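Fill in residues.
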């Protein structure tokens, strides 16, 4: 897409803010000369201040957003730690809390940047101790901060009404809602990324961006990269976009004339700001290499998340999955289909906000496409939480089209909200990770009940199980067990792994077996059945044996099992014969 010429209407709109204002505001819009020599008092920076004429300063919004997020997640705040929380993020934060080490010592380091650990440990200090409730509260605070960033971004591009709708839909979208109390690095990175975008994408009325916009964009993107290394994808994509604009801009646009935007200089400033996050991330990797001898974590982590994913077939399949994630998954197809239908059939009743059309609209497309492509290569698991910053942008595009094409667009927003809320509890007809909606809560509660039973009935057990239950049983601080159990680890619960365990029956006397993903029940509609073969080959998909099959293969008894909305767990016990010898004192004398 080429930039407009200096004489085009779109180019003039960048120099004449009154063209994108409502009729009531055009009467008082400044002249072109006034724009070229702006009143500096109007550009004084405030990180949280509202734009002129807006009645909603952000300092008043944050406590409201936090209370709303906290209360909406009330019954999730005391749940034990789940999945990657238990496997890495909480142990890493505990290591820093107890020893001050940025490199985890009680779990395998994978070179994730340390910002989440620093924030968690600092918050625990402020709270006077470590607790699940304190952790969940901090994540709610980060989620609320992210939603304020969504509101600031959408308000600057499309106005407060659209901003309110986009923020609400983002907050209740199942993937976002579920991650809003989980201490994964992704919600931290998403929060800082969205705040950075609120400075980069929102074009001011003045033709020359104020220096603070470059600075805060660099700061927030740097914080995002220090929260999770893959957050560097968004500023990298935007930096490439700025470089492209330098090459496709016409000579008149790049000319330095009085009263004209200095396009070349502005693009170079943006490139510098967007490249700035590389420095702190590089310093972190240098420190990690100095301490461990590895740059990107351990070799297995690097293989699983990068080097093993470079085949063209896998990349294309991953890209297909990623497109499905942002257009279909968890009822996202509802706003997307409504938007496409309006674009195909309805005539516009008013222009999409000009700031959303240019230059924000192509930049948003660059961000979405950049993340889709990057996360088709990076990451061994196709987790949807990697795309957290993308979902608000997709919703912003959808709602902007609704308001431009349909007067009764509020009905579309209401329908979308209803389907998002439904998807929190009603599972889709295909396989998905429990953390994409409230299914993860069922999984956590089932694990908690199973481990509680093992503690009461078999306190000296050696438990055969797979990750993350291996961590849940050996680390009481995760909230499941009151003591540490001996475990015999399995890779998963496939028939091959069970057969390996059957070859060494003396290494365990109890088994904790559970579902590792949600799949439609037998006989039900299953849209993912058609690509199970490729998922097994490229994405580590596997079929777990049932508790009954495991009991038969290992010659044990099912002593307890339970299920909840498709998630299941069982405890098996194996009677072991023990050789006993009578010891007679002085028998050899």
């Amino acid at each position: 897409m080429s930039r407009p010429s200096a004489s085009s209407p779109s180019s003039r709109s960048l120099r004449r803010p009154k063209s994108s204002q409502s009729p009531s505001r055009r009467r008082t819009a400044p002249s072109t000369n006034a724009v070229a020599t702006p009143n500096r008092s109007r550009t004084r920076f405030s990180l949280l201040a509202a734009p002129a004429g807006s009645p909603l300063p952000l300092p008043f919004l944050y406590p409201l957003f936090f209370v709303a997020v906290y209360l909406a997640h009330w019954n999730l705040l005391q749940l034990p730690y789940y999945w990657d929380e238990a496997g890495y993020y909480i142990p890493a934060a505990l290591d820093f809390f107890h020893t001050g080490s940025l490199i985890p010592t009680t779990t395998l380091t994978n070179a994730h940047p340390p910002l989440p650990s620093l924030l968690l440990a600092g918050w625990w200090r402020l709270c006077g101790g470590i607790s699940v409730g304190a952790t969940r509260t901090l994540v709610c605070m980060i989620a609320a901060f992210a939603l304020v960033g969504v509101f600031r971004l959408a308000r600057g591009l499309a106005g407060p009404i659209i901003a309110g709708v986009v923020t609400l839909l983002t907050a209740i979208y199942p993937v976002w809602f579920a991650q809003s109390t989980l201490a994964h690095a992704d919600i931290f990175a998403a929060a800082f990324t969205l705040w950075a975008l609120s400075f980069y994408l929102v074009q001011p009325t003045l033709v020359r961006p104020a220096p603070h916009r470059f600075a805060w964009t660099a700061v927030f993107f740097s914080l995002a990269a220090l929260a999770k290394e893959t957050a560097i994808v968004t500023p990298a994509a935007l930096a490439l976009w700025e470089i492209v604009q330098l090459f496709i801009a016409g000579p008149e646009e790049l000319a330095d004339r009085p009263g004209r935007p200095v396009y070349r200089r502005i693009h170079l400033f943006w490139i510098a700001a967007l490249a700035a996050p590389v420095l702190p991330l590089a310093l972190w990797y240098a420190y990690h290499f100095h301490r461990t001898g590895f740059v990107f974590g351990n070799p297995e982590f690097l293989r699983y998340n990068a080097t093993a994913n470079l085949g063209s077939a896998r990349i294309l399949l991953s890209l297909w999955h990623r497109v499905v994630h942002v257009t279909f998954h968890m009822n996202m197809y509802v706003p997307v289909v409504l938007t496409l239908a309006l674009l195909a059939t309805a005539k516009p009743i008013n222009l999409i906000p000009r700031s959303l059309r240019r230059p924000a609209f192509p930049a948003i497309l660059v961000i979405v496409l950049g993340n889709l492509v990057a996360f088709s290569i990076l990451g061994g698991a196709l987790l949807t939480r990697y795309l957290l910053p993308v979902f608000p942008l997709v919703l912003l595009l959808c709602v902007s089209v609704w308001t431009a094409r349909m007067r009764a667009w509020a009905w579309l927003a209401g329908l979308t909200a209803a389907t998002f809320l439904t998807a929190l509890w009603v599972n889709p007809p295909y396989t998905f990770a429990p953390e994409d909606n409230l299914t993860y809560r069922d999984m956590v509660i089932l694990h908690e009940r199973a481990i509680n039973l093992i503690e009461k009935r078999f306190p000296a057990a050696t438990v055969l199980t797979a990750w993350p239950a291996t961590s849940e049983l050996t680390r009481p601080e995760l909230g499941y067990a009151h003591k540490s159990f001996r475990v015999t680890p399995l890779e998963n619960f496939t028939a091959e792994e069970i057969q390996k365990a059957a070859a060494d029956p003396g290494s365990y006397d109890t088994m904790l077996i559970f579902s590792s993903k949600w799949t439609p029940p037998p006989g039900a509609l299953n849209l993912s059945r058609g690509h199970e073969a490729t998922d097994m080959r490229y994405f580590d998909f596997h079929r777990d044996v049932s508790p009954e099959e495991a009991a038969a293969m290992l010659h044990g008894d099912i002593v307890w099992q339970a299920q909840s909305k498709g998630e299941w767990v069982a405890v098996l016990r194996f009677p072991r014969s023990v050789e006993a010898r009578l010891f007679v004192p002085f028998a050899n004398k």
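The mean pLDDT is 86.
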